[in-house]
Structure formats: structure tokens, C-alpha cells
Design a protein that fits this description.
heterodimer; A: 484 residues; alpha/beta; 10-stranded mixed beta sheet; globular; B: 381 residues; Rossmann fold; 2 domains; 6-stranded parallel beta sheet; 15 strands; 34% helix
Chain lengths: 484, 381
């Protein structure tokens, strides 16, 4: 048997392979699984007979040895001009490059960035902001709703501009579903600002990394003072003067996994200032300072334990209130992703790895000078990532180049089992040389495949639960179990 | 002498009606299209709303009530995402009436005429027309008759997504049928159809006091009553919703109303309107086979819309998301996939309506009436 284009998976209950071309997870016997493992690892000496089950699957079109993809080209390549001309959904306005914090991991910090801009006193003028709103207006005729995001630096340093933009947008987009979002460190939230945000339904996200000892390690003012106390005092004030609005508050938590997970999680055990589920955790981004993210043992095993409890809680076997909200959020996000696995199609002859979005269409970043970037996560110093200006519009060819980042590594991508589950976008191929680099992109492949592998294994395991544990499930139901 | 009209608020949903406005009725002439500023249409030709060819009317966002260029304000309560707050329409109506203009209010037949509009109709007697006073809109009362088939051919026009030009196809076919002297009964989803003597089903499908099975009976009786009153040679129906589930992220209504309709009247022919990139032979054959089993008729013809579904956005927003491509993309799709497709592909928006009409005529075997003749021949079911 020729080496098939598959990836094998094993759960506690069963064995599977992913038929990459068909994008189907196929259960197989242990014997077939072992045969496939040997084949994939090159240890098959040809002596072993091919299991009958695999013969049958092969006859049904499974286990093909060649990739169905003949050319890597994103299906939206032909329409990218239309998407960018008629379908913008969001702009993020970089109101200022200044910040009253100097977080130690900040991608904009003077010490840590290699390929990203630094803090500066540059800020957006009203003329640029107005032009950006007009740009969204004239490029969103096919969007039922639009969103304007305020970003920085610290955007609240420019509150008068925020006000002016909000009022202009409300007039300009009258009749369309319009929303606003702001990400802030929270320290400048005055009563006036809170009332204004509530009145205009501006979705508020405050950054906070954990309890005082964790947060204040990194999130500090320019003079080195910790910021935790001020932020918590502002959040408490928010809950007093705008209790309904406070229920929609979200906390962006950047976790440095060098810390003990229990310490990070402890923030939810300290009083009732923070709502357990308003949390958006993420791992610190070290892409731009050239360092790898380090995970301490205390983080890893305690997180895994909480994750295990989150799984039990999901199935009604453990009280939700005793599980880390961070782990619950992570599990919920993973379960949501599972729906994608069930609905993705097989590979087509002209296809693209699934990482990139349509650059600029989903969350166009407008910097203080009116330059356009696909989103706020890319390097603003990189010419490769700048896809236009407010005056000249989006450079469609450049955006198309970013959309088709898979072409950089076409040969490898065509043969990669992770083609449908890839999460690598052009940002990963930006090596700071103002072009896109195949080497830089490929350096993320192992990590991406490992993530996809874990996700698919979890998907399979969760699918198995009612089937393989039917006795336990029925017993639980008889005892009044829930969430099954 | 036609009455000059300003239409408010104009949106992409209404573009097909704007295009057919002068052709399908002889009472009004369209002078102004007024949109909300947020729709992004201000200063553009109305065709821009769907990336269609220009229609020759520039959209404005200012409802100038003192404008002597129009005499009647046509207020349309649109549906879905573009649905208008009725209080805004009432305010516009009142201001127009104060300045001596007339008002015509059109809304989905399933909802009551807003109190404000009714009150204005009483105060400004004879100056306000609304659903309640339009006999053409009202359904003939359903009786307790048993279920029976409609005896004339029924053509269903439905879309894989609701926005894929179904209204445009229905209106264009209606215009051609009428121009050829055929008697056609047309049912659409958009309240604007009332202007053109068309009917809607929403007063049945949207009722909350009827069980689903009862709705199916009511639909059957309603269409049969129309048949009895209008004596059509053909019935054209715009599917009341998208014709099938899109995916897990956007179930798209599961095509439930179309299913009910197909149980009620058993359409003979189906024109399926599909987003551009889905107009591919094997895919169309697969859905045609599915429709044949599920709805009782295969796809007889396809209209290729310039709609492009934004799959990645659907995952984010959990609803159907789309944009409108250049019509050149539709032509290219038809050039590439039209030849090999057993289900013929047409581009009704550009120039394909004649082809679609001829194709449908050939399978329905409607006979063109002789000039001046009053006896029209067609094949009964």
C-alpha cells in the first residue's frame, strides 16, 4: 500500500485517521491503526498484509496517496477587490501611539520590540479620524452592521476625539447597525467617561493580567509603579455608577505562563469585583521580541488540572463555580471551534490553507497617520503589512499577496495534513524584512500542527463521550445529572 | 398622467422594484429615491446597492418634503436587517401630509398598520393609502374546503440564500408574461409587490395562532382562491424563505416556509437563484435531486446571482453574510460552467431573462396568444 495522505489519531477509546483530501475522520480497528502508523513512519517492510478494512476503505476512495490540491490559491482571490470595496465590517482607529503604562511585555515597548513600532507622542487628528469613518462608510454598503474600535496606545488619552468620532459615526451610519468597542487599561475611566460609554453603548474591554502580584510585575506606569489598585478601583466605581453597563464589561487577561497558574486565577477568588465569565484570556505575544514563550511547570500542570475540571463541569460532573473561569473560557472556545471541524469541506484542486482572513475586511487598522493594516496584531513597521492609506485606498494586489500567503510554501502546504486546520496568516511570514518569508512562515508549522492535533483529538473524544460512556451517562441521568 | 413619487427608505431590497416600477404599474412614476445615510448609497446610482448596472436614479439621503418634483410619498416597511422603525415612517408621513403631499404606506401583510398611520389616514382623509384599504392585498378568506391541487402551472422562484435576486427574477418574468398577454398571478415576499397588483403569503406564514399543518391548508386555499378570482394561466411564486439550510452556523431558517408552500401547492417548475460561485453543474445537480425528493420538483433553471457568500464571516457572525461581485464574475461563471451543466444557467440581471423566459415557456408549453385573440391556450397540469 502506498503511503496515504492521512494523519492518525488515538483516543482512550478508539483509533482514527483523518483522510486529508476528504477531510473526514474515519474510525478504524486497532490493527488497521497500527498498520497505518507503521506505513506513515516508514517502518512498514511490505511483509505485513494490508488489513481488509483498509482495502475496503481504499476501494471507497479513502486513503489516496496524493494531495487533491494542485494549486494553492485562496478562493476569494478573485473577489478580494469586491470584499474590500463593499464589505468592510470594522475599522480600528489607532487614536494614539502614547500610553500611560509601560508594560514590560508590551509589543510597542522601547526595549522589547524588534519588528514593531515604539511608543511615541503621535496621535490621530480629527481630519484623519473623520476620513477613516468616511472610508468605512463608503466601503461597507454590503455590511449589515459595522463596528468602530478605539485602540492605542491608551485610547482614553484621546477621549475628546473618541467623543467626536462617536457622534460623527452616529450621524453618518444612521439606519445601519453600528457598534463601538474600546480596549483600555482602565486607569483613566472617569465618571464622565463611564456615563458617556454607557449612553452610547460602547463595548468596554479592560486589560488586567491577574491579581496584584502578577499584574504589577508587568503592567506598570512609566515610573514603574504598579497599576492594579487603580484599575480595580475604577472597575469597582464602574459597577457602582453604571451597574447594568458593568455587566457587559470584559477583561482582557494576557497571561505570562512563566507564572503559577493558580496565582493568575486567584483574581477570581478575591472579592466580587470581577465577573467570572467576562474574561478573555490570551497568552503573551512574544513574536516581535524574538523570544519564545516559556511555560513554567506550575502553570502547565495546574492549568491542565483546571482544564480537566472544566471538562467535568461541562458534563455536569463537577460544580462550575469551583472551576477556573480561564479554563472554562478556553474549553468553551475549543468546543465552539469543534463546530468548524464538522462543517469544513474536503480539499479542492485549487485551494488554500485555512489561516488567512481577507486582509483588512474584518478589522482594518487605521494608524495615527492614516495608513491601513489588516488588523491591529501585525507590525506597523513592516512595509509588507501596510496595505494602503486612507488617501489612496487599499492596494488590492498587496492585500491579495497577504491573502495568498500559502503560496509562499505551496509545495509543503499541499503535502501537509494540517491544510484545513492551519492557523498561519501573513503575520507569521513577516520577518521584518519588508517582505514575506517562507522560512519565517514554516517556522510556525510544528506549533500549528500540534495545536490542530490537540484540537482534533479533543473533538474526537468529545464525540465519543455519549457513545463509549453510555452506562455512566444513563446512570447519571437517572440520578438527576445535568448538561448531558 | 402618472403621479410623481418619492420612495423612502430605499435599500438594496427594493432595487428590483425600482427597476420594474414603470413597467409593472401605470399609476405612479418614480422621481426620488431616499435612503438612510448609513446604508452607504447616498450619491450613488440605485444600481450600486447590488452592484448592478445603473438604473438612472441617484439615491439621496435627504427627504426634501418641499421638493415640488414629487406629490406622493411612498413609505415601504422593509423586512429583515433593513427593517424600518415604524415611528420614523410615521414622522415622515406626517410631515409630508402637512406640506400637502399624499402618502402611500406599504408593509408586510402580517402586521397591523401602525396606529400612527391609521390616525393620519383619518385626519388627512383621502390623502393616505395603506394596506388596510387595498383590496388587492387582502387575502380572499379561506374556506374549509378540502385540499386540492391548483390546476395551472406553478413556477417557484427560490434562492439558496434569500437575497439571491428572487424578487428580480419574479418581477422580470411577470413583466414578460404580461407583455406577451398571459394572465399571471404573482406572489412575492416584499410588500412593494402590492403596487404591481401582486400578492403575498406573509399574512398566513407569519400567523402565530395557526398550527403548521393548518397554515399549509390555508396556503393551498389562498392560492386556489386567487386562481378562481384571477383565472391565471400561470402562477409565479417567490419562495417565502431560503430554500434549504445553509450550514450549522447559519441554518438560514431551514427552508421551512418553502417546504410548507411546496406541500400546499406543489409547484411544477423551479427556478433556483444561486450565489455566483455555487453555480457549478455537479452541485446544482445534487441540490436538484434533493429538491426533487424533498419539495417535489427538481431545479429546472438557475439564475446566477452576483452574490458572493462570505463563508469566513458566517463563522464569526453566525448569519448569512455576502457581498455583490461585479456582473462580469457572473458572466465568467456561466461561460465556464454553463456549457456542461444539465440545468441551464441564466443571468437575469444582465440580459438573461429572455432566455429564462423562453426556457420556461418551452417546458411549460404556454402558447403565446394571438394578437387580439382572447383565447389563450396552455397545458393544464
Amino acid at each position: 500500500m502506498e503511503t496515504p495522505f492521512i494523519q492518525v489519531f488515538r483516543t482512550p477509546n478508539s483509533c482514527y485517521f483523518l483522510d486529508v483530501n476528504k477531510n473526514e475522520l474515519v474510525p478504524v480497528s486497532r490493527a488497521s491503526f497500527h498498520y497505518l502508523c507503521a506505513l506513515l513512519s516508514g517502518k512498514d517492510d511490505g511483509e505485513e498484509p494490508v488489513p481488509q478494512e483498509l482495502h475496503e476503505l481504499h476501494a471507497q476512495g479513502y486513503l489516496a496517496s496524493e494531495s487533491a490540491v494542485k494549486e494553492v490559491r485562496h478562493p476569494y482571490t478573485k473577489f478580494i477587490g469586491t470584499f474590500l470595496d463593499r464589505k468592510l465590517a470594522k475599522i480600528t482607529l489607532q487614536l494614539t501611539q502614547n500610553c500611560n503604562f509601560r508594560c514590560k511585555y508590551c509589543i510597542y515597548s522601547e526595549e522589547h520590540n524588534v519588528r514593531q513600532r515604539s511608543h511615541s507622542t503621535e496621535h490621530m487628528s480629527w481630519e484623519v479620524a473623520k476620513k477613516a469613518v468616511d472610508f468605512l462608510w463608503s466601503h461597507s454598503v454590503d455590511s449589515k452592521s459595522v463596528n468602530v474600535g478605539f485602540y492605542g496606545g491608551e485610547p482614553l488619552l484621546e477621549f475628546p476625539l473618541i467623543r467626536r468620532v462617536v457622534e460623527y459615526c452616529e450621524e453618518r451610519f444612521y439606519g445601519k447597525d453600528l457598534t463601538f468597542t474600546i480596549t483600555t487599561n482602565g486607569t483613566l475611566l472617569s465618571d464622565e467617561i463611564i456615563h458617556y460609554f454607557e449612553a452610547h453603548d460602547i463595548s468596554l474591554m479592560i486589560s488586567l493580567d491577574g491579581p496584584k502580584e502578577i499584574n504589577d510585575k508587568n503592567r506598570v506606569y512609566a515610573d514603574g509603579r504598579g497599576t492594579y489598585d487603580v484599575v480595580m478601583e475604577r472597575i469597582a466605581r464602574l459597577k457602582v455608577i453604571a451597574p447594568e453597563y458593568a455587566k457587559r464589561l470584559q477583561i482582557s487577561m494576557v497571561m505570562d505562563p512563566e507564572n503559577d497558574f493558580d496565582c493568575i486565577n486567584a483574581i477570581y477568588l478575591e472579592g466580587d469585583t470581577l465577573d467570572r465569565m467576562g474574561i478573555m484570556p490570551s497568552i503573551v505575544d512574544r513574536d516581535y521580541d524574538g523570544d519564545e514563550v516559556a511555560f513554567s511547570e506550575e502553570y502547565t500542570w495546574k492549568y491542565e488540572y483546571q482544564r480537566f475540571l472544566a471538562v467535568l463541569a461541562h458534563w455536569g460532573r463537577f460544580p462550575e463555580e469551583k472551576v477556573s473561569p480561564i479554563a472554562q473560557y478556553s474549553l468553551a472556545a475549543a468546543l465552539d471551534d469543534d463546530r468548524l471541524i464538522g462543517t469544513s469541506t474536503g480539499l479542492r484542486s485549487i485551494d488554500s490553507p485555512s489561516g488567512p482572513c481577507v486582509p483588512g475586511q474584518m478589522r482594518l487598522l487605521v494608524d495615527v497617520n492614516g495608513r491601513l493594516f489588516p488588523c491591529e496584531r501585525v507590525s506597523e513597521s513592516s512595509l509588507a503589512m501596510c496595505i494602503g492609506t486612507l488617501d489612496k485606498g487599499v492596494d488590492v494586489e498587496k492585500a491579495s499577496h497577504l491573502l495568498n500567503v500559502g503560496r509562499l510554501t505551496e509545495a509543503a502546504c499541499k503535502q501537509c495534513w494540517c491544510f484545513r486546520y492551519c492557523t498561519i496568516c501573513a503575520k507569521r511570514a513577516d520577518d521584518g524584512s519588508n517582505g514575506l518569508s517562507a522560512d519565517a512562515k514554516i517556522s510556525f508549522c510544528d506549533e500549528t500542527r500540534a495545536g490542530a492535533y490537540g484540537k482534533l483529538k479533543q473533538y474526537l473524544f468529545f464525540k465519543e463521550v455519549p457513545m463509549f460512556y453510555a452506562v455512566q451517562v444513563r446512570s447519571m441521568e437517572a440520578e438527576g445529572g445535568k448538561n448531558l | 398622467m402618472r403621479i410623481p413619487v418619492a420612495l423612502y427608505p430605499f435599500s438594496a431590497q427594493l432595487l428590483p422594484a425600482v427597476k420594474a416600477f414603470e413597467q409593472l404599474q401605470d399609476k405612479y412614476t418614480l422621481q426620488r429615491l431616499v435612503s438612510h445615510p448609513g446604508f452607504g448609497l447616498t450619491g450613488q446610482d440605485a444600481g450600486y446597492s447590488r452592484n448592478h448596472p445603473h438604473v438612472g436614479i441617484i439615491v439621496t439621503d435627504e427627504l426634501d418634503l418641499a421638493d415640488p418634483g414629487w406629490d406622493l410619498l411612498l413609505l415601504i416597511q422593509t423586512l429583515g436587517a433593513e427593517a424600518e422603525n415604524s415611528s420614523k415612517l410615521e414622522t415622515a408621513a406626517e410631515r409630508a401630509l402637512q406640506l400637502g403631499k399624499s402618502v402611500r404606506y406599504l408593509a408586510d401583510g402580517s402586521t397591523e398598520v401602525p396606529d400612527g398611520i391609521s390616525a393620519l389616514a383619518e385626519v388627512y382623509s383621502g390623502m393616505v393609502i395603506h394596506n388596510g384599504s387595498m383590496a388587492s392585498h387582502r387575502s380572499p378568506e379561506a374556506s374549509n374546503d378540502a385540499y386540492k391541487d391548483v390546476s395551472v402551472p406553478i413556477v417557484l422562484v427560490g434562492g439558496l440564500v434569500e437575497e439571491a435576486d428572487t424578487l428580480e427574477v419574479v418581477l422580470r418574468l411577470t413583466a414578460l408574461l404580461r407583455a406577451d398577454g398571459f394572465q399571471v398571478t404573482t406572489i412575492t415576499n416584499n410588500p412593494v409587490g402590492q403596487l404591481f397588483g401582486l400578492h403575498t403569503l406573509s399574512h398566513i406564514t407569519n400567523r402565530k395562532d395557526l398550527a403548521e399543518a393548518r397554515k399549509i391548508s390555508e396556503l393551498n386555499q389562498f392560492v386556489r382562491k386567487l386562481e378562481a378570482i384571477e383565472r391565471p394561466q400561470v402562477v409565479l411564486i417567490e419562495a417565502p424563505d431560503a430554500v434549504l439550510r445553509y450550514n450549522d452556523f447559519a441554518p438560514n431558517g431551514f427552508g421551512i416556509y418553502t417546504y410548507m408552500l411546496c406541500q400546499a401547492v406543489r409547484p411544477d417548475h423551479f427556478v433556483c437563484c444561486v450565489p455566483c460561485e455555487m453555480a457549478v453543474g455537479p452541485f446544482l445537480e445534487a441540490i436538484s435531486s434533493d429538491f426533487a425528493h424533498r419539495l417535489g420538483m427538481p431545479v429546472h433553471a438557475t439564475h446566477v446571482s452576483n452574490l458572493i457568500v462570505h463563508a469566513m464571516d458566517i463563522v464569526q457572525t453566525r448569519s448569512i453574510s455576502y457581498t455583490h461581485a461585479e456582473l462580469a464574475a457572473v458572466r465568467e461563471q456561466i461561460d465556464v460552467y454553463g456549457q456542461g451543466s444539465p440545468i441551464p444557467l441564466f443571468d437575469v440581471v444582465s440580459n438573461g431573462v429572455e432566455g429564462l423566459y423562453t426556457h420556461l415557456n418551452s417546458i411549460m408549453r404556454l402558447e403565446r396568444p394571438e394578437k387580439g385573440g382572447d383565447l389563450l391556450c396552455f397545458s393544464a397540469k
